[in-house]
TrEMBL record:
Protein name, per record: Nucleotide-binding universal stress protein, UspA family
Domain (UspA) ranges: 1-125, 137-272
Family designation: Belongs to the universal stress protein A family.
Alphabetized InterPro entries for the sequence: Rossmann-like_a/b/a_fold, Universal_stress_UspA, UspA
Record organism: Natronorubrum thiooxidans
Length: 277
């Protein structure tokens, strides 16, 4: 499990939800929680200090070290620089799916940090329907055979081992993004066979390290199936790679991660491939 987690805050509801969840994790794992408030250079530092004091309250009685600082500058750059210079293991961020022109938009700062952070990013939506419970009992990992999804699976196995949780491996056969007609039985069968192979290998890998695992192959919209499966299994966490494979002979993950982040009813841990440039 992590030893040092960074929680950027701006005093908003989603940020407070992230702080509260980080406090719950810290209370169990005895982590060091770094709280950082990034402000514009023209902002009154007294106001920022007052917001940090409020943030400490949201973190709860974690009974673990809490380090809080105010930094000035551009939020994305300040957050990533702080994470790099303080050797944090993960970033916990709040976000709210905001309605744009006919679609949900993820907060731009959170999206940028998820895309560029070298450490896992735990995204917590500030919405009443979002389940935030710790320790973890059920972890859902969407997989597609890509190296990014494999990295997420490795992280999920470590979390499951620490928590005694069950890992659910979910592979969704979503033919629409790769341009395959559902009437093309041969190509559809190829995708189904590949998805089942990925799931079976993952279940075997989990069992070899002593983690309980369940596999499932489903059809339809990847984003929709991931959310429905997560809700049906009453999962505590979704772990996803930030990129995925696409093409006629591959399954799609990639941009699905961003869409899941906008509507997820549980926290989502995003993981990048370790040696990704």
């Amino acid at each position: 499990m992590f030893e040092r987690i960074l929680v950027p805050t701006d005093g908003s509801g989603p940020a407070n939800a992230a702080l509260e969840y980080a406090g719950e994790i810290a209370a169990v794992e005895n982590l060091t929680v770094h709280i950082v408030h990034v402000v514009d250079p023209d902002t009154d530092p007294t106001d920022a200090s007052e917001q940090l004091a409020d943030s400490r309250e949201w973190a709860g009685d974690a009974d673990a070290p809490v380090i809080d600082e105010v930094h000035t500058g551009e939020p994305r750059e300040a957050i990533l620089e702080y994470a790099a210079t303080h050797d944090v293991d993960a970033i916990v961020m709040g976000t709210r799916g905001r309605r744009g022109v006919g679609r949900l938009l993820l907060g731009s700062v959170t999206e940028a940090v998820v895309r560029d952070a070298p450490v896992p990013v735990l995204v917590v939506r500030g919405a009443p329907e979002v389940k935030r419970e710790y320790p973890l009992e059920t972890i859902v990992v969407p997989i597609d055979g890509s190296s990014h999804a494999d990295a997420a699976f490795e992280e999920a196995l470590a979390l499951a081992s620490d928590n005694g949780a069950t890992v659910h491996l979910l592979s969704v056969v979503d033919v629409a993004p790769v341009g395959i007609d559902e009437g093309n039985d041969f190509r559809l069968e190829q995708l189904e066979q590949y998805a089942q192979q990925v799931v079976d290998e993952g279940v075997q890998q989990a069992e070899e390290v002593g983690v309980d695992a369940v596999g499932s192959v489903q059809h339809g919209s990847a984003q929709q199936r991931i959310r429905e499966y997560t809700d049906d299994e009453n999962a505590d966490l979704v772990v996803m790679g930030t990129h995925g494979r696409s093409g006629l002979d591959r399954l799609l993950l990639g941009s699905v991660t961003e869409r899941v982040l906008r509507t997820a009813t549980t926290p989502v841990l995003t993981v990048r491939e370790p040696d990704e440039e």
